[in-house]
From TrEMBL:
Record keyword Signal present: no
Record domain ABC transmembrane type-1: where: 19-301
GO cellular component: plasma membrane
Residues covered by the ABC transporter domain: 331-554
PROSITE patterns for the chain: ABC_TM1F, ABC_TRANSPORTER_2
Membrane-spanning intervals of the chain: 16-38, 58-78, 126-152, 158-176
UniProt entry keywords in alphabetical sequence: ATP-binding, Membrane, Nucleotide-binding, Transmembrane, Transmembrane helix
The protein's name: ABC transporter ATP-binding protein/permease
Cellular compartment(s): Cell membrane
Keyword Transmembrane helix assigned: yes
CDD domains membership: ABC_6TM_exporters (cd07346), ABCC_MRP_Like (cd03228)
Length: 554
């Protein structure tokens, strides 16, 4: 029931498809349940009346039913596929949307390919489970009632013989419930991890080539696969024992029907037509019961998926306030502390004021917290710091930083990533309003030679392809930052991959625009320090890296 509650909003969104699917499922059920009855009566009328019009009527009926059945099952399947795919993708995107808003440190120990795989397969499993069973479970119950009723009316003794098999089925399900859930869960986890490992190998193709670690990579995959195989075999063993109990029961049923049904015909308690009706209806009863058995199994599979999605959705989103700003004039830090793991402070009682109209350079040794500091003032660590950070007079935790970052902060990262799209799309990524002419002008100002690219600004770029250099990537990211024309500009190591000439161009642009902006630059390079109004050493941010006594606890 909790799975249904969780999924219903995704499938009820597509009411028309759902309606068509339901109506046609019911039609196909009526057809399947009436055919044995019509056939049994046909056999008896052939035996007792020998009238040729009976044959004509029966064949016409079967032809009509056949045509209706073919057309309706096509439309039913078509609606099902549409409904299933759309609902599953909606669920998938909702979960992804939640993941996007989890604290950045959640991703520290998470394999994102694995996570993606997991969300996708779990969303599909859940939607399919509900769609396949929501109506089927009702139809199968109706079938059981209807078929029992007709069978009892035809032959009470034979029908009563079937009843003890029902508790037997239930007992089998309850015995296998836990092992099936556990082995199913284990298998899904291992499969997702294995595929993510495969993906990682392709992602690191350059690293593998440069170090010629082809054999080691293959070996790693094989090792990983062997754990998948162990889980798969265990799951197969348990599933097989579970399903073979089903076939065993079918065999016992059939023996019972043929033995007692045959005797009843000989003794005149059943006509041949009635025997075929009962025989077909008993097969339906078997189908229904084995459906309920497999429902138990697929419910356990769906429960695994539900628990895994719920675990993600129960993760709290990162703190993000609701106040917004139209301009930023100052960023003030008051007694700010930050630690990743509460064993060592990366930022230690830091106080500072950043004002519009100045360029600030943050320098310092590797690993001393410069990038951490940038992430902190951008609002990525809102759940983890102590002290106060004010934008104008509003504390960072109260601000809707999604909106502030989107509109009035521009960031160029140390290792900018590209989206797989054209140069133009990469430059305007995340920017709603821009002037097309400004793009080319900015690229030119940064010494970015568009003529080198076959289709100019419309050339497609790929993050992992080598059709663009590190410096060119950085220039795209810088162009995006300047095109946005934000109040705060943050550049993390902007000069590390730029040539001297391009550094001079960048400095020129920064000096030109600084009057109305707060510009913060993280740098190791001395070449850019001369444009700084203030230089902050990372030692000031964390004045004693080994200070374990003073570690703050949140
Ligand atoms: N997600 C994280 N979890 C735990 N520790 C982290 C995390 N990110 C960074 N650190 C640690 O925090 C310290 C500061 O890292 P940070 O990246 O801020 O340094 P940095 O000054 O920018 O270095 P660099 O000059 O090399 O870019 C490092 O010791 C690093 O190992």
């Amino acid at each position: 029931m909790k799975i249904f509650k969780f999924i219903k909003k995704y499938i009820f969104k597509y009411k028309l498809q759902l309606f068509i699917f339901f109506i046609l499922s019911i039609l196909s059920w009526i057809i399947s349940i009436s055919i044995p009855y019509i056939t049994g009566n046909y056999i008896d009328s052939l035996i007792y009346s020998q009238n040729s019009s009976t044959i004509f009527n029966f064949t016409m009926k079967i032809l009509l039913i056949g045509i209706v059945s073919i057309v309706s099952s096509f439309i039913m399947n078509y609606s099902y596929v549409k409904l299933q795919t759309k609902s599953a993708i909606d669920l998938n995107l909702d979960v992804l949307n939640h993941i996007f808003k989890l604290p950045i440190l959640y991703f520290k120990d998470i394999d994102t390919t694995y996570l993606n795989q997991r969300v996708n397969s779990d969303s599909n499993t859940l939607v399919s489970f509900i769609l396949n069973n929501m109506l089927d479970s009702i139809i199968k119950s109706l079938t059981l009632i209807f078929v029992f009723y007709i069978s009892i009316r035809i032959n009470r003794k034979l029908t009563i013989l079937l009843i003890p098999f029902i508790p037997l089925y239930l007992a089998i399900y309850f015995i296998f419930k836990k092992p099936l859930f556990k082995s199913g869960h284990d298998l899904k986890e291992k499969q997702n991890k294995f595929f993510s490992k495969m993906n990682e190998q392709l992602y690191n193709i350059k690293l593998i080539k440069l170090n010629s670690t082809f054999e080691e990579s293959g070996e790693q995959l094989r090792e990983n696969f062997s754990t998948v195989l162990v889980s798969l075999l265990k799951y197969t063993r348990i599933s097989y024992i579970f399903s073979s109990s089903d076939s065993m029961t079918v065999t016992i049923y059939q023996i019972t029907i043929f033995l007692f049904g045959g005797m009843e015909i000989i003794n005149g308690g059943l006509t041949i037509g009635q025997f075929t009706i009962i025989n077909s209806y008993f097969s339906m009863i078997m189908e229904c019961i084995s459906y309920y058995l497999s429902l138990g199994k697929s419910y356990q599979d769906a429960l695994v998926s539900y628990n895994r999605l719920e675990k993600i959705l129960n993760q709290s989103k990162e703190a993000n306030g609701d106040k917004t700003l139209d301009t930023i004039d100052t960023i003030i830090l008051e007694n700010v502390y930050f630690s990743y793991d509460y064993t060592r402070n990366i930022i230690n009682d830091f106080n500072y004021e950043f004002k519009k109209g100045s360029i600030y350079c943050i320098t310092g040794r590797n690993g001393t917290g410069k990038s951490t500091f940038i992430n902190l003032i951008l609002g990525l660590f809102n759940d983890y710091y102590k002290g106060n950070i004010y934008y104008n007079s509003l504390e960072l935790r109260k601000l809707d930083m999604y909106s502030v970052r989107k509109r009035i902060i521009g960031i160029s990262e140390q290792e900018p990533r590209l989206i797989n799209d054209t140069i133009k799309k990469n430059v305007v990524y995340g920017i709603n309003k821009y002037n097309y002419g400004d793009i080319e002008e900015l690229l030119k100002k940064l010494n970015f030679d568009l003529n080198k690219f076959s289709k100019g600004i419309n050339t497609s770029l790929y993050e992992d392809a080598n059709n663009i250099s590190g410096g060119e990537k950085l220039k795209i990211s810088l162009t995006r930052t300047f095109l946005k024309d934000p109040d705060v500009i943050i550049l993390d190591e902007p000069t590390s991959v730029l040539d001297i000439n391009s550094i001079e161009k960048l400095k020129f642009i920064l000096n030109q625009i600084k009057e109305y902006k707060i510009i913060i630059i993280v740098t190791h390079s001395k070449e850019i320090l001369d444009i700084a109004d203030e230089v902050i050493s990372s030692n000031e941010i964390c004045y004693n890296l080994n200070d374990k006594i003073n570690v703050y606890q949140s």
